[in-house]
């Protein structure tokens, strides 16, 4: 939801949330743009709905970005620009707690930047970063990438680095992490 002040980062489990993921043209919030946004709505720990759209960044997608996420210029040609995609995502998410992997230092920065640019407001939803939880509750692991956590829990990593697949994977990881937090 749009707000005058950003939501807070939470370090706990909640059973009702929206897990989301972005794919972008690169890793710089100041230089790069979103090319895909997806989300899974979760109620009582169970996935109940999904949102996903490719996004036309209004410029060519760099080769190295396409190598990571498989998203090409041809794929996004008829897709909405991010203002419309973000609006759809915000309607889907409502005031739910947002969950994602590495969202504190990456995804939220894109949402904050573009909400400010488009509407002069920020994203007011509180959020949970599963990367930070994994580092705290699974210190024995050498790596805490989403695919590493999925492997650790025996969750399929098929389709990794596409936003909706990563959301589904992360939802399962978050539910398993919740048991570590008990």
Please explain how this structure is put together:
The chain is an alpha/beta fold and 182 residues long. Helices cover 41% and strands 21% of the residues. It has 7 helices and 8 strands, in the order E-E-E-E-E-H-H-H-E-H-E-E-H-H-H. The strands form 2 sheets. A 6-stranded mixed beta sheet has the order 2-8-6-3-4-5, sandwiched between helices. Strands 1-7 form a two-stranded antiparallel ribbon. Strand 4 and strand 5 form a beta hairpin. Helix 6 packs across helix 7 (163-180). The radius of gyration is 16 Å and the shape is globular.
Distance between the termini: 30 Å
Low-confidence stretches: none
Quaternary organization: single chain
Number of strands: 8
What Rg do the Cα atoms give?
A: 16 Å
Helix/strand-derived category reads: alpha/beta
Largest sheet: 6 strands, mixed
Please give the order of strands in the largest beta sheet.
2-8-6-3-4-5
Number of helices: 7
Q: Work out the helicity level.
A: 40-55%
């Amino acid at each position: 939801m749009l707000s005058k002040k950003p939501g807070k980062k939470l370090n706990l489990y909640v059973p009702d949330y929206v897990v989301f993921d972005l794919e972008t043209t690169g890793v710089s919030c100041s230089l790069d743009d979103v090319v895909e946004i997806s989300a899974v709505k979760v109620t009582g720990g169970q996935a109940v709905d999904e949102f996903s759209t490719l996004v036309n960044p209004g410029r060519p997608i760099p080769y190295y970005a396409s190598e990571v996420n498989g998203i090409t210029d041809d794929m996004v040609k008829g897709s909405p620009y991010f203002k419309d995609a973000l609006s759809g995502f915000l309607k889907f998410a409502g005031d739910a707690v947002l969950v994602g992997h590495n969202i504190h230092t990456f995804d939220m920065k894109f949402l904050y930047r573009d909400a400010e640019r488009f509407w002069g407001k920020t994203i007011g939803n509180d959020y949970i970063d599963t990367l930070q939880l994994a580092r705290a509750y699974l210190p024995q692991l050498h790596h805490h990438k989403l695919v590493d956590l999925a492997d650790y829990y025996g969750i399929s990593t098929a389709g990794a680095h596409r936003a909706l697949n990563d959301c589904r994977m992360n939802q399962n990881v978050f539910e398993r992490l919740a048991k570590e937090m008990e």
